[in-house]
Design brief:
- The protein is mostly helical.
- It has a single domain, classed as Growth Hormone, Chain: A.
- 83% of the residues lie in helices and 0% in strands.
- Helix 10 runs parallel beside helix 12.
- It is a multi-pass membrane protein.
- Keywords: Membrane, Transmembrane, Transmembrane helix.
Length: 435
């Protein structure tokens, strides 16, 4: 057994590790607004905006896949310090470079760092938290995601008319927060559970069969008993993230280029709805560890599907976009990334946890990157087709998730915690040796 961590210390680690979600949200939201502000100054076309947005999302996907695996192999702390350095370097490019290749390099670095950080930071939170606080602390990371978007939107309402300077302020905010997070993380210890499991794996490596060696590889995710949860989470998050990524990266574009509104109107509406969403995350943190979890999930799922049906039925006008933003940002509190994070941490063991989370994020972001690449072109030729795709994707995602996770009764991480808390009973050989 390891020395228990005081509750206040747990929340500090949850904050510092959870800043991965803040930075991810800030990067996604900033890029969508900043590229609109840079459109005229740097002569960006719909195609180049699509390339930059897709590069960020694609890089997050690749970073999550690689970073998640490295987190299981090298340790949580090693990876989440390196990722902060990478994000900081990318943010410097985005702030100071004024040519397309520099912007592209900055997007790639920020995306790789943010993606690699997410699964490792979530595993850190899950492994140091007590069972009664685990759901709330992982949910807290989603609150930080909301706050990251809100801060960027608040800034956007101020700098939305400043053109290139406004874009530099948005990217500069990411740089400052990343550096502060890097400093804070120097005080976060390595996951004690990861150290124990890694030492046990190394000690036992010589006696394990080839099949057992697969335990520490991604192949294990496609084998029982993990394959059902892995595939369900990958499909659920991929389909839901199509909508989330579109709202985050192309919200400003939808308002300005499709509905003939302004960046300030978009930022104000999203800021209000995000504030409401952040309040609801507090509710989510309370109910996620109770028997009412799935009831709230169903309510959120209905909101997300209806959100995309409104502009589909009535066309992408300012008022329909308002309704979409409200329903989507409220619904995804209970039926989006937050619940995906908790299900993932619960469903996989320590030496697969970060890898599984990274692979799920990677699959989802690859899908979103593909859609982001063509979104401006789709919107220019027929925006209702985009909302039909997103509505259908949401419906399939939430039905699948409900079918799989409404039947889940026990979780891997709770079983691990129970093993940790069980009293030590020596074997007969150990008893004789001690006697």
């Amino acid at each position: 057994m390891t020395q228990p961590i005081p509750t206040r210390r747990m929340w500090w680690i949850a904050l510092i590790a959870g800043m991965a979600s803040y930075i991810d949200a800030a990067a996604m939201t900033s890029s969508g607004t900043a590229l609109v502000l840079l459109k005229d100054t740097l002569a960006l076309t719909p195609e180049t905006i699509g390339v930059l947005s897709s590069a960020l999302t694609f890089s997050v996907a690749l970073g999550a896949l690689v970073g998640g695996r490295l987190g299981d192999l090298l340790g949580r702390k090693t990876v989440f310090l390196a990722t902060m350095v990478m994000i900081a370097l990318g943010a410097v490019l985005l702030v100071f470079v004024e040519v397309f290749p520099g912007l592209l390099a900055g997007m790639i670095l920020v995306g790789l760092g943010a993606g690699a950080d997410l699964p490792v930071s979530l595993a850190t939170i899950a492994e140091m938290a007590r069972a009664g606080l685990r759901g709330s602390m992982i949910g807290f990371s989603h609150l930080l995601w909301k706050i990251g978007s809100m801060v960027v939107l608040g800034l956007a309402t101020i700098v939305g008319g400043m053109g290139q300077l406004g874009a530099q302020i948005l990217f500069g905010h990411i740089l400052v927060i990343t550096v502060l997070t890097l400093v804070g993380r120097l005080s976060v210890p390595e996951s004690a559970r990861w150290r124990a499991e890694r030492l046990a794996e190394r000690a036992d490596a010589s006696s394990r069969s080839d099949a057992a060696l697969g335990w520490s590889t991604l192949r294990t995710l496609l084998q029982p008993p993990f394959v059902t949860y892995f595939l369900a989470l990958a499909v659920f998050y991929t389909l839901m993230n199509l909508g989330s990524n579109t709202v985050s990266q192309y919200g400003a574009y939808l308002y300005t280029e499709v509905a003939d509104s302004t960046v300030q109107v978009y930022s104000t509406v999203k800021l209000i709805t995000m504030f409401l969403g952040a309040l609801l995350v507090l509710v989510f943190m309370k109910v996620v560890a109770t028997r009412w979890r799935m009831a709230w999930f169903v309510a959120g799922a209905v909101c997300t599907v209806v959100a995309m049906c409104v502009p589909l039925a009535f066309g992408p006008q300012v008022w329909t976009l308002h309704v979409m933003m409200f329903l989507w940002l409220v619904g995804t509190v209970f039926a989006g990334e937050g619940i995906m994070k908790i299900w993932t941490q619960e469903s996989f063991p320590t030496l697969l946890r970060s890898s599984a989370q990274g692979a799920i994020i990677a699959i989802a972001r690859f899908g979103s990157a593909a859609l982001a690449l063509v979104t401006p072109i789709v919107l220019a030729n027929g925006p209702r087709a985009l909302f039909a795709l997103l509505a259908g994707a949401c419906l399939v995602a939430v039905v699948l998730a409900f079918a799989v996770f409404s039947r889940q009764r026990t979780t891997v991480i709770d079983e691990e915690a129970a093993d940790d808390e069980a009293p030590f009973v020596p074997s007969s050989d150990e008893a004789r040796a001690r006697g």
